[in-house]
């Protein structure tokens, strides 16, 4: 988003009306989607095939940057088209077959995704952090026919190949770049199971012609495009089935948000030759995993269409991030708030030129309000933004940025115009929100979302689909409030709510209060069993380098901001980072097991 003023030139409603008016780029229309009348972006690309065709307009500009490797948009288009033909002709992939990707962030991840999409397959991005058993589950549950893996994941999967009846081949990319032309290998599982060929990525790709184009595969907006597995904080992960419409909706929503921000807040930056160059081709530091909806939907797909340079990190490291920001003149970076804070807290921050930064975007976890101030201090022309979305909403549902974020730093912003949101009281059993139910900024309840970005359900899980989706509405499990302007405030995850002596304690509120202390770099609040109160409030705290504070001082700090029953009675100081999943969310179950003795 362009840097600009904090005082808007028009209201949110005025900007929405201007941009969505008949004949405008962001005009909306209602469509029947699986029997539910749904508001959609009228001018959205019909499918991801159209999106990659759009990428050809960017020609020889750099698309993927990984270490010293650079792949242009034109080169990538030829690779993806060639790979799509190979998947259909060599590997027997037909429309609707599942193709898994099990890699860290390397260029082959992106190539495999677009190649599979162009072949008409459903892409199944699996968590590269998963164990071999978890990967076996994902491959088996999805019924994947081909799996693109890196060498580390190949070793984890290999012992389980004999039990995967649907898997016909592995395509292995060497993330260490040590053996780019290794010979074809065939793995023969023990016990007489069918052999599984292992193709090195270059061999599986074959020769890429200068005139290579994708195969002619008819793709409908409602065709399935992806299966992203949820984080699995309770039970086995579920595969959220996203359609092509889901994916392109997210693309249009991000374009809309960027356009609306520029319209309302303008730009106070005098254009320079360097700034014009950066605007001509924006550069995005990809610090989140591609197997997460944010990395895939909001970074990869958006930059494919818009011509942005994606600078890839094999894994996040704040020092490496600073090096790449300087080297590649990064315009936007982010991830989850903890990643941004790690960059800002680096003792070497001042040694690097980070003046190219124009946007810092994050989501997926609560953001301390003070983070806005710190971003503005580091990058006076930069625009911080905080968004909200889930795997089930194909990434973005709402975004708070610019002057709105400065004004309401606790909010994740208003929903994009194609989304409806509602706060539903606990225990409500209707299929749609009750318009007569109490509403207003003081009402808390479960957040429900409806829109063309909401996935169609869970893969082969009809009962769980019925519990989570009803008449187009997603029941998020997040506790939220809506203010008079429609801005969303996420109060807590329902399962993270602590009940202390009959009082509801929302961990996000306690975490936000702790984050306001200048000594706190990171924190997480959990429930601690108590024989009479049910639960007490506990907090794990990581301090900033060189900072000192006592548990009593932190308790007084929280007490000055929140009710007494919300003050942590247990505070643990940790000398190591909090455990997080690849999406950046704190693994509270693991933290609780580590800190709280079993009762």
Give the structural class.
Answer: alpha/beta
Backbone CA Rg: 24 Å
Strand residue content: 25-35%
The CATH topology of the domain at 71-219: Rossmann fold
Number of strands: 29
**Rounded mean pLDDT score:** 88
The second-level CATH architecture of the domain at 71-219 is 3-Layer(aba) Sandwich
Based on Cα principal axes, name the global outline: globular
Biggest sheet layout: 6 strands, mixed
Helical fraction: 25-40%
Termini Cα gap? 50 Å
Number of discrete helical segments: 18
Q: CATH class of the domain at 71-219, please?
A: Alpha Beta
Spatial sequence of strands, sheet with the most strands: 6-5-7-8-10-9
List the uncertain runs.
268-278
The gist of it:
With 599 residues, this protein is α/β, with parallel strands linked by helices.
